[in-house]
Amino acid sequence: MELSQRALRDVHGRLDELTAVVTERLTTAARRRAGQLEVSAVRAIVAQAVDELRQGPLPAADNTAAKDSDDALEQALADAKRHPTDTTGLRRLVDEMVAAGGKLGHTALELAPAHLSDQEAADTILARYANDIGCDVDTTLATHRYALTGDRRALSATTPVWLL
User: In whole angstroms, what is the distance from residue 14 CA to residue 98 CA?
Assistant: First the structure.
């Protein structure tokens, strides 16, 4: 079973999660077989993991201590500013920003269904939604696209003003 380019693009922003799932499944399969796995078995495991990630929910932030808190994003930002060389803190900030983008995107998707083009969505409802939440229309459209695709690259053009 070959993986399509589309499938690989869909999970590109979730490589850490994919790696963890594949590693766990390969380890389990190797223990069962008590030896090396065949190439076809490895391909099947990877393809299944990719399919599951593509169908799964948008990734949430990994910060379990502040996950239930409304200020998890502010905490991650403060930590990143306090320790700018700490890659774990920066990764947590990115994960929190993606999670926030996912939440905004889901709301935008509820307001403007997927069958509308970006221009139609902006003209009908998303411009007003963006104004109501104090955001620009381009960022709202980017979060809308992220909710549609689950691809983190949709958010790459959005840089919150408070992050600069």
Answer: 11
Closest CA to 16 of 61, 55, 48: 61
Band of residue 127 on the pLDDT scale cut at 50, 70, 90: very high
What span, in angstroms and rounded, lies between the C-alpha atoms of 135 and 128?
10
Q: What is the distance between the alpha carbons of residues 16 and 104, in angstroms, rounded to a whole number?
A: 23
Instruction: Determine contact, residues 142/154, Cβ cutoff 8 Å.
Output: yes
Residue-wise pLDDT for 102-123, tens only, equals 888 889 988 998 888 889 999 9
The amino acid sitting at 152 is R
Question: Which conformational region is residue 116 in: left (phi greater than 0), alpha (psi within -120 to 50 degrees), or beta?
Answer: beta
For residue 61 the two structure tokens come to 């932030």
Measured between alpha carbons, how far is 85 from 79 in angstroms, rounded to an integer? 10
| pLDDT at residue 164 is higher than 50 | no
